[in-house]
What we know:
The complex is a heterodimer.
Chain A: E1 17-29, E2 32-39, E3 50-56, E4 62-68, E5 78-83, H1 89-97, E6 103-110, E7 122-127, H2 132-143, E8 150-156, H3 165-170, E9 174-177, H4 192-199, E10 204-210, H5 211-223, E11 231-236
Parallel strand pairs in A: 7-8, 7-10, 8-9, 10-11
Antiparallel strand pairs in A: 1-2, 1-6, 2-5, 3-4, 3-6
Chain B: E1 24-25, E2 47-52, E3 58-61, H1 62-67, E4 70-78, E5 83-94, H2 95-102, E6 110-115, E7 120-124, E8 134-139, E9 142-143, E10 153-155, E11 168-174, H3 181-184
Parallel strand pairs in B: 1-5, 2-11
Antiparallel strand pairs in B: 2-3, 4-5, 5-8, 6-7, 6-11, 8-9, 8-10
The structure holds flavin-adenine dinucleotide.
Flavin-adenine dinucleotide (FAD) binds at residues 50, 65-68, 81-83, 85-92, 129, 132, 234, 236-238 of chain A.
Amino acid sequence: MTTDESFASVGAGSTAWTTGRIITKDFPAPHLVRLRMHVEDRHRHWPGQHYLIRLRAPDDYTAQRSYSVASDDSDPLVEFLVERLPAGEVSEFLADVAEVGDLLEMRGPIGRWFRWDTYTPALCLVGGTGVVPAVAMTRAARHHGRSDLIRVMAVGRSPEALPYAEELAAAGAAIVYTRHPTSARPPGPPTRAEITPLLAGTQLAYVCGSSRFADFAETLLVEAGLSAEAIRVERFGVTG
Amino acid sequence: MPATRGFFRRRPDGPAGRLPPGQYDVGGNWPVLTAEVTPRIDRESWTLGVDGLVDRPTTWTWDEVQQLPRSSYHGDIHCVTTWSKFDVVFAGVSVDSLLEAAGPDPRAEFMIAHSSTGYTTNLPLADVTGGKAWVVWEYDGRPLTAEHGGPVRLLVPHLYFWKSAKWISRLELTVEDRAGFWERNGYHDRGDPWLEQRYQGDP
Lengths: 240, 203
Ligand SMILES: Cc1cc2nc3c(=O)[nH]c(=O)nc-3n(C[C@H](O)[C@H](O)[C@H](O)COP(=O)(O)OP(=O)(O)OC[C@H]3O[C@@H](n4cnc5c(N)ncnc54)[C@H](O)[C@@H]3O)c2cc1C
């Protein structure tokens, strides 16, 4: 069993910059790139934590962004799933320029608020690339033989827009497409009737996705009766 | 560290000398980064308290806080997630005015800002006095929206923006430095963008 103590070294102090080497790179969809990296002097991570990836130009100009870890701590490599944003400085580089064998500056794992402790029953309500921490939580729960602890509702416009949909569905996640009909449901955002049964017995909810998705998800959860203190939110991306 | 293969400068530097290291100019955007549910707080029931090590713990209602001398900030803000925003204008009241009313005890060295959500952040008193910090309710001439901390937020523009607590409800003066929400979760105790004090262990 994993307890807080067995992770005592995780995030206890600071994490220094280190390097990661890209071991595999693939495109689950045209705008999504998956990188699996070997991280030098790697620290253990909790599901839900993220790394910083920093790019450095020859003139020492740098750009750094946060990327959630998709892999479980027991995975020898650290996995990232990045959405390629048009004119996005770092995501375009990772998608179009970075190659297997390249070294990137990395720092992590970071974030103790959005981590899952591996034993509290929780619901992940995640959208688009916001599924990434839910994937790490699902994988960690399976690794600990406690798949019952993590429930996932993953929301995307269509199957192409929802990375890891098959893996999550196989693990029992509810998959919701807002613009794509399935045999299970017509297209449309998740409803209170759909979320309420998933909340039974959970103590925490993790919301992750774009700012717009996070606003929608927070409201849905509060309306379904969850207290605001039980909701942890991670917002990806720039909004106005 | 050596340069990243194939990476070249993509973003302009921003106004000369105004972009701290590792930051980029977010332009017209204003990202929303919040770890909690956005609360809907109505002005009628909102209050702001200054307490802890003060001679006269004081609470202001919305109407009362509006009567205090108005003060505004025109300048830049910097978020630890690496965006900076130039030439923003906030208006409200200077933290100096609030402290003057409450009478800080000379032993007080730190301030803990409390939000109505339970969010907290710690600040050396020296970082929020002398015209360096505000409690604000207007952005760009309009009421501050809830997603950006409205009706009222703290503004400490010379530190990373997680110090500028949203939905502020209470300022507590203390002798000792007690870590706040992000500080307990791995962020730096002070957060000076020019020194890149992002996470614990940074200079
Ligand atoms: C804790 C955390 C975890 C995250 N995890 C993930 C993850 O797992 N996967 C993931 O994909 N993302 C994740 N993100 C988001 C990620 O950090 C980046 O914000 C994202 O990849 C965009 O970065 P970028 O450099 O590609 O785009 P940026 O260069 O930052 O640009 C963002 C957007 O603004 C537009 N833009 C920027 N500047 C200009 C300009 N001058 N003119 C016109 N348009 C402009 C770009 O086109 C782009 O659409 C996470 C964020 C956080 C905070």
